[in-house]
């Protein structure tokens, strides 16, 4: 096949799967049937585009084809035995002319309905993530399984169970009303953030990052920003992802070794993503109190604004962590706040702040705590204590790139 | 429309220790809940304490074993229920969130009609 056409189909798969599926599910009222129709539409694109050329608007072409297949399915069998019927309100019902080629412009973007269904709080978090990757991003079950390091049958069972729960409990295919939107949107944002952090620092596997997952999370955050342009929490999450993702090329050396924020080559940070992220900060901080992601984005923005590690405004970062602790008092936030205090006021102050967290049960086994202690101990020239703390961190770290970094830190202490 | 069963799970030990005022307040809250959600309520009631439970098991040889007590001994037990009508899970959750359960919480499960005719 013409590589140009193959790339166009792959692009459309990556970019448009969610919009095509969401529009098709409105007709089939059945997630499995909708997935089949969309799959067929992409197969038809592979056959048609080399002959007739790539359409000017691939998403519209695919939506029209998938929805026509869905309408045919319904006409062929009026009593289409819907295995997984979706509950949509009257506004989502198919209308005459829906399958016309000319109607593509009038098809509403249903991706918000789809993502609110996939991320419903009645579903387990792992199921929300899996459904989002599969239905919004078009990943196969096998790709979703490998992203989360579980077997394909396990992931297939998880997805099937989640779809059955959507049907049996009648989780609606609907954007929640304004009174429920903030809480439900928070669940959606958490799924996208979890996807990003899993991709940004993979819990296991050979490399530090899973770029595919991080990129999907960025796509989803951009989609939410496009569909909910006035929501400060959405702006906050997109800003956070952009400002963090901007460092992606500098987080490891060419041979895959971890490089700390302090040592990263800031000239290689992605200036376009930083610019886009910084432009969102003000919108993100509009709401009082600001959302968790808006504050995290503001912290990332302070780092992005510093030309060198030594020039970082640590007092501002400490203040932002204080604000974050108010709305999100998590042990991990407290740990990062302690590190910021150490950078702002010196390693002794940092160590004291870290020691207050020593008995925090949620941080037991969290390798960043002993790693942070080791760093401050090293700066205080308490080499023996630093070595012990680095050893503890290395025992607890799961990611091989991080393990290797800690091993090098230990050997540097010895020289 | 669909039916949902709302199970009220309670810590009986906490109820045993509760003073008369707490019990009366809970009773009043349930009456208010019932009045507020009359349109959606199919039925509902409290249950006698779990030590009144009798379990029945059929054995493979056709025998029946009747015994005192519940299958599982847990701190929280079902103390009451409401059967509600709702168009979807979101509506069912909106109603169930209002169910008073000061010493526990509630679980919501869709009713699975035995025949499709019965569901109409």
Describe the structure.
Chain A has about 425 residues and is mostly helical. Chain A has helices at about 5-30, 30-50, 60-75, 110-120, 125-135, 140-145, 150-170, 180-200, 210-225, 230-245, 270-285, 290-305, 315-325, 330-345, 345-355, 370-380, 385-395, 400-415. Chain A has four domains: about 5-110; about 120-170, Arc Repressor Mutant, subunit A (Orthogonal Bundle); about 180-310, no CATH class; about 325-415, Alpha Horseshoe (Serine Threonine Protein Phosphatase 5, Tetratricopeptide repeat), CATH 1.25.40. In chain A, about 65% of the residues lie in helices and about 0% in strands. In chain A, helix 1 packs antiparallel against helix 2 (about 30-50) and helix 1 (about 5-30) packs across helix 4 (about 110-120). The longest helix of chain A is centred in the N-terminal third of the chain and has 26 residues, at about 5-30. With about 120 residues, chain B is α+β, with helices and mostly antiparallel strands. Chain B has one domain (about 1-50, about 75-120): Alpha-Beta Plaits, CATH 3.30.70.1060. Chain B is built from four helices and six strands, in the order E-H-H-E-E-E-E-H-E-H. A four-stranded antiparallel beta sheet of chain B has the order 2-5-1-6. Chain B has a two-stranded antiparallel ribbon with strand order 3-4. Chain B is flat and about 50 Å long. Chain B starts with a strand and ends with a helix. The model of chain B has no long low-confidence stretch (mean pLDDT about 90). Classes of the chains: A mainly alpha (about 425), B alpha+beta (about 120). The interface of A and B includes residues 120, 168, 169, 170 and 174 of A.
């Amino acid at each position: 096949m013409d590589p140009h056409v193959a790339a166009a189909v792959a692009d459309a798969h990556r970019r448009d799967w969610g919009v095509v599926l969401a529009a098709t599910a409105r007709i089939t009222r059945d997630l499995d049937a909708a997935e089949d129709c969309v799959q067929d539409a992409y197969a038809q694109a592979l056959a048609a585009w080399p002959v007739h050329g790539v359409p000017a608007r691939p998403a519209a072409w695919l939506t029209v084809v998938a929805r026509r297949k869905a309408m045919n399915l319904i006409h062929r069998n009026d009593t289409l035995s819907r295995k997984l019927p979706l509950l949509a309100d009257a506004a989502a019902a198919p209308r005459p002319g829906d399958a016309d080629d000319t109607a593509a412009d009038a098809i509403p973007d249903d991706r918000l309905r789809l993502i609110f269904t996939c991320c419903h709080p009645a579903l387990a978090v792992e199921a929300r993530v899996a459904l989002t990757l599969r239905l919004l991003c078009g990943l196969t079950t096998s790709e979703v399984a490998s992203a989360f390091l579980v077997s394909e049958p396990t992931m297939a069972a998880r997805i099937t169970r989640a779809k059955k729960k959507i049907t049996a409990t009648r989780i609606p295919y609907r954007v929640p009303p304004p009174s429920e939107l903030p809480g439900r949107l928070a669940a959606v944002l958490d799924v996208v953030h979890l996807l990003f952090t899993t991709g940004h620092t993979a819990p296991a596997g050979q490399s530090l990052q899973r770029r595919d997952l991080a990129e999907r999370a960025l796509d989803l955050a951009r989609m939410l920003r496009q569909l909910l342009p006035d929501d400060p929490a959405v702006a906050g999450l997109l800003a956070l992802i952009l400002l963090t993702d901007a460092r992606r090329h500098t987080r490891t050396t060419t041979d895959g070794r971890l490089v700390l924020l302090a040592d990263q080559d800031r000239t290689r940070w992605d200036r376009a993503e930083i610019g886009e992220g910084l432009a969102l900060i003000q919108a993100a901080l509009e709401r009082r109190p600001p959302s968790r992601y808006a504050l995290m984005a503001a912290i990332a923005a302070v780092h992005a604004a510093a030309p060198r590690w030594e020039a970082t405004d640590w007092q501002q970062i400490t203040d932002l962590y204080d604000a974050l602790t108010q709305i999100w008092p998590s042990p991990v936030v407290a740990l990062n706040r302690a590190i910021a205090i150490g950078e702002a006021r010196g390693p002794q102050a940092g160590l004291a702040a870290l020691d207050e967290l020593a008995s925090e049960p949620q941080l037991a086994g969290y390798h960043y705590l002993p790693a942070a202690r080791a760093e401050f101990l090293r700066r205080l020239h308490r080499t023996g204590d630093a070595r012990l703390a680095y050893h503890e961190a290395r025992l607890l770290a799961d990611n091989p790139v991080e393990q290797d970094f800690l091993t090098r830190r230990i050997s540097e202490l010895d020289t | 429309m669909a039916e949902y069963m709302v199970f009220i799970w309670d810590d009986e030990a906490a109820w045993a220790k509760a003073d008369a005022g707490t019990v009366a307040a809970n009773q009043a809250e349930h009456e208010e809940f019932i009045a507020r959600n009359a349109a959606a309520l199919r039925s509902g009631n409290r249950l006698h304490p779990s030590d009144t439970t009798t379990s029945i098991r059929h054995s493979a040889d056709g025998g029946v074993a009747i015994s005192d007590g519940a299958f599982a001994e847990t701190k929280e037990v079902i103390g009451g229920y409401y059967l509600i009508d709702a168009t979807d899970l979101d509506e069912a959750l909106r109603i169930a969130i209002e169910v008073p359960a000061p010493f526990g919480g509630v679980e919501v499960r869709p009713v699975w009609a035995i025949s499709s005719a019965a569901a109409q």
